[in-house]
Amino acid sequence: MRRSGRGKSLHPRPVGENREVRLRSERPTARREADQVRQAAQNPVRDPATGPAGPSCPDGEPRRGRPRSAAVERAILDAVVQLLEAGETLDGLSIERIARTAGVGKATIYRRWSGKEELFVDVLRDIEPPDPTVSGTAGLDDLRVLLESMRTRGLAQRSSALLHNVFVQMKKHPRLWTEYHSTVIAPRRVATVAAVQRAVDAGELRDDLDVEFMGDLFLGPMLVRTVHRPEASLPEDLADRIIGTLLQGLAPRGRKPQATAGEPAAAPA
C-alpha cells in the first residue's frame, strides 16, 4: 500500500474504525488507573511512627490529621509510669526524657499532647480504675454505678503508692490540677447530676428540689470518705447505704421534720 510522505495511508480507514482503534488504545490506560486505585485502597500508606492508616469515621467522614498509633501512645504512657515508679517527681520529668525512655521523638509526643499537663492527666486516667459505663436511661441505678466507681477509685488510691503519690504531687501544681478537674472530675459530676435528673423524671426523687443540690447530697458522703478521711472504711455496700439513707431521710421515724418541705432548716444562732 502506497503512503504519502507524512506516513498517512492513501486509503484512510472509515471513521468508525478509527474511533474503535482509539478506544482500544485508551482501554489499557483506564484499566491501569483503576487497578492503581484499587491497589491504593487495599494497601493504605503506612507511617512508621503512627502505624497503618486508621479506618474511616463511623459517620463516613474521613479522618483528619495524622492517624494515631495505640502502640506508640502505650509506650509513652508506660514511660511516664516507669519514671514515676523509679522515684522521679512531676517537676523533674521533661518531655525530652519521657521521649527518650519511650523510644520516640519529642515531636511524636507533642503531636498527641500540647504539654506535660495534658500528658499527666492521661497517665492518671490510665492508672486509675476506668470510668464506668452507665445505661444513660436509668436514674437511681446509674447513680449507684457512679457512686460505686468513686468508691473503687478511693480504694485504688489507698492501695496504690504510685497513684497516691501522683495525686499528692498533682495538688501542688495548679495548672495540672485544673486540667485534671476540667477534663476528668467535672465530667463525672455532670454525669452524676444527669443521673439525678433522670431519677427525678422517673419519679424516683422529688421534683421540687434543685437537681445539682441533690447531686451534691449523693456525692458528698462518698467524697468525704474517699478523699478527706483516708482512714474511713469503704464497705462494698456504701453506695447503697448512701442512696437508701437519703431516700429515707435523716429525721427520726414518726417525727415530722421541722424544716418546711423544700427549705433547709435554719442554722442555730
From TrEMBL:
Residues 94-113 bind DNA. Residues 1-69 are annotated as: Disordered. SUPFAM superfamilies: Homeodomain-like, Tetracyclin repressor-like, C-terminal domain. GO terms for molecular function: DNA-binding transcription factor activity; transcription cis-regulatory region binding. It holds the Pfam family TetR_N. InterPro entries: Homeodomain-like_sf (IPR009057), HTH-type_TetR-like_transc_reg (IPR050109), HTH_TetR (IPR001647), Tet_transcr_reg_TetR-rel_C_sf (IPR036271), TetR_C (IPR011075). This is Regulatory protein TetR.
